[in-house]
Amino acid sequence: MPKPNKGARLGGGPAHERLLLNQLASQLFEHKRIQTTETKAKRVQPVAERLITFAKRGDLHARRRVMRQILDKSVVHELFTEIAPQVENREGGYTRIIKTGFRKGDNAPLAVIELVLEPVNPKPKAAKKAAKVEEPAAEVAETEAVEAEAAEAPAAEAAEEKAE
């Protein structure tokens, strides 16, 4: 018989894990932040980010794909109408995981997973690169001009000597 190689699953079997992650994602969209164990937070992050990517697309097919995983229509509506427009300019990284300590009863490591809804401030790296690209081009043009003048100067001196 084949031996499973994935490792321990959250909950019980694969179906239960899928249900658990979908429900965690649903709660995340409803409350904007949830506290859970680190392991569950790390496992729900790609699921939630994929659903947000579908919501950013915004068409009927994307809505139906999300409805396959999240069964609560009000949460899907909130995802498509409120969360997706807020992360429209963000190219990824829609969630953030913050470690918060350990649970009192079983000392399990806890974390808060939350949606990153702040507006994106693009870094001006492209402007700096464009300026850096232009500067060497300007320096090359100046260097060529100086070299051309230097080449013309001996020729001009030689012409003056011949004229004398």
Task: Characterise this structure.
The chain has 164 residues and is an alpha+beta fold. Helices cover 62% and strands 12% of the residues. The protein has five helices and three strands. The protein has helices at residues 14-31, 38-57, 60-69, 73-86, 125-163, and strands at 33-37, 95-102, 109-115. Strands 1-3-2 form a three-stranded antiparallel beta sheet. α2 crosses α4 (73-86). It is elongated and about 100 Å long. The chain starts with 13 loop residues before the first helix and ends with a helix. The mean pLDDT is 85.
Q: Please bin the fraction of helical residues.
A: 55-70%
What class would the helix/strand composition place it in? alpha+beta
Distance between the termini: 105 Å
Strand order of the largest sheet: 1-3-2
Rounded mean pLDDT score: 85
Compute the number of helices: 5
Q: What percent strand?
A: 5-15%
Total beta strands: 3
Question: Quick one: biggest sheet?
Answer: 3 strands, antiparallel
Q: So what's the overall shape? A: elongated
Taken in chain order, the helices and strands follow as HEHHHEEH
Which value, in Å, is the CA radius of gyration? 30 Å
Low-confidence stretches: none
